[in-house]
């Protein structure tokens, strides 16, 4: 049986690449073949991509060009080596008008596939609008990234949601949205695909860290001077040097020793070997908890609900920094015994969801 998936695989960041890989490997435990539909959102490639990062400024565009070239090589090579993509690339909604049926079942997700904030509006393909009527449609850990939706968005997408055979969402807020606003009562919450595997799974894939001694890792996706200033003071208080996982070349100007766009699986190694991780990233937080490295989390300017919901699930809401004068957070203990137990239970929910779809136990596929 073959499964086809549409997700945010073409986003140039570590979380998107790792969740795509994890989705593929988890589904492979239940399906004979898994393929990702190579749909590329307009602002994730070419001139639109450069315009998005440069905000229309020729000077910023020239400065960003080396980063974008590195993105294409780093993430493009990762996908060629590890991700099974369709031969055909889809760039517009019109490209799907002659979509050829390629699978027995179809999945949308995971990640923020239903975030109209991230997607700049409703993208019907992420709701499997192109799938033939006779094929089952499933959502795998899909996320709205919000606690509630505008009613006009609900009206615009209600028909798409109603066509799903079964929906799983990543956050409890997504389950609430579906119940309250769509009157869809059979949704379940399951974890992000990267959490469907224990920390040891990622350690086996990760290369050598290459950093000796204790250090604090900064993984910040958003420009935040207060976070940077906090990091410097935290380093002085703890005596641990700062290392920054830079996702752009211009991040090298910010505090910390720069590690610029390392290999994708090195993301796990850098988190695993750190003493603390200072991050505004959901996946930065998720990997920290899964690899049992205490995170200090800063809410991002957009889609912060997913980070708060994850910390709440683990009972570790205190890891969310609410005051940049709070340095005691670095000394507060994370109950990783509890975290381990909660994540194990979440993994069971993923397997239950996939067993219900396929009628198989993944042990049968090993």
Low-confidence stretches: none
Mean pLDDT: 93
Question: Given the helix and strand composition, which structural class is it?
Answer: alpha/beta
Q: H/E series, N to C?
A: EHEHHEEHEHEHEHEHEEHEHEHH
Alpha-carbon distance between the two ends: 16 Å
The level of helicity is 25-40%
Q: Supply Rg.
A: 20 Å
Task: Please provide a brief summary of the model.
This protein has 366 residues and is of the alpha/beta class. The protein is 39% helix and 15% strand.
Please write out the topology.
Blueprint lengths: L1 E5 L7 H14 L5 E7 L6 H9 L3 H25 L2 E6 L14 E4 L7 H4 L17 E6 L8 H12 L3 E4 L2 H9 L7 E2 L9 H7 L10 E4 L5 H14 L3 E5 L10 E4 L5 H7 L3 E4 L2 H9 L4 E3 L7 H10 L21 H23 L8
Parallel strand pairs: 1-2, 1-4, 2-3, 4-5, 5-6, 6-7, 8-9, 8-11, 9-10, 11-12
Helix pairs in contact: 2-3
Would you write up a description of this structure?
This protein has 366 residues and is an alpha/beta fold. It has helices at 14-27, 46-54, 58-82, 116-119, 151-162, 172-180, 199-205, 225-238, 266-272, 282-290, 305-314, 336-358; strands at 2-6, 33-39, 85-90, 105-108, 137-142, 166-169, 188-189, 216-219, 242-246, 257-260, 276-279, 295-297. The longest helix has 25 residues, at 58-82.
């Amino acid at each position: 049986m073959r499964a086809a998936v549409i997700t945010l695989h073409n986003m140039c960041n570590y979380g998107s690449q790792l969740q795509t890989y994890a989705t593929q490997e988890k589904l492979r435990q239940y399906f004979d073949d898994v393929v990702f539909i190579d749909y590329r959102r307009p602002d994730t490639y070419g001139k639109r991509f450069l315009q998005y990062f440069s905000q229309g400024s020729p000077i910023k565009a020239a400065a960003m060009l080396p980063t974008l070239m590195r993105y294409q090589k780093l993430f493009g090579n990762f996908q060629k080596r590890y991700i099974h993509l369709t031969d055909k690339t889809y760039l517009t909604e019109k490209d799907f008008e002659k979509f050829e049926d390629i699978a027995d079942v179809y999945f949308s997700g995971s990640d923020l596939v239903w975030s109209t904030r991230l997607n700049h509006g409703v993208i019907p393909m992420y709701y499997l609008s192109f799938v033939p009527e006779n094929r089952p449609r499933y959502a795998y850990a899909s996320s709205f990234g919000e606690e509630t939706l505008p009613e006009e968005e609900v009206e615009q997408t209600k028909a798409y949601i109603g066509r799903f055979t079964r929906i799983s969402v990543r956050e409890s807020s997504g389950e609430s949205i579906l119940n309250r606003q769509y009157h869809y009562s059979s949704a379940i919450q399951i974890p992000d695909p990267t959490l469907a595997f224990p920390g040891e799974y990622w350690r086996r894939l990760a290369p050598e860290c290459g950093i000796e001694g204790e250090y604090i890792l900064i993984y910040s996706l958003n420009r935040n001077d207060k976070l940077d200033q906090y990091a410097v003071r935290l380093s002085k208080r703890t005596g641990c040097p700062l290392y920054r996982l830079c996702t752009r070349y211009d991040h090298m100007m910010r505090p910390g020793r720069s590690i610029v766009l390392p290999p994708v699986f090195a993301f796990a190694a850098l988190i695993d070997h750190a003493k603390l991780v200072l991050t505004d990233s959901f996946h930065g937080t998720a990997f920290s908890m899964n690899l049992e490295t205490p995170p200090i989390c800063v809410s991002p300017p957009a889609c912060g609900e997913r980070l708060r919901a994850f910390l709440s699930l683990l009972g570790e809401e205190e890891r969310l920094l609410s005051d940049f004068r709070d340095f005691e957070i670095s000394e507060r203990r994370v109950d990783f015994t509890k975290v381990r137990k909660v994540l194990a239970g979440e993994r069971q929910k993923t397997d239950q969801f996939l067993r219900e779809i396929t009628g198989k136990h993944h042990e049968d596929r090993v």
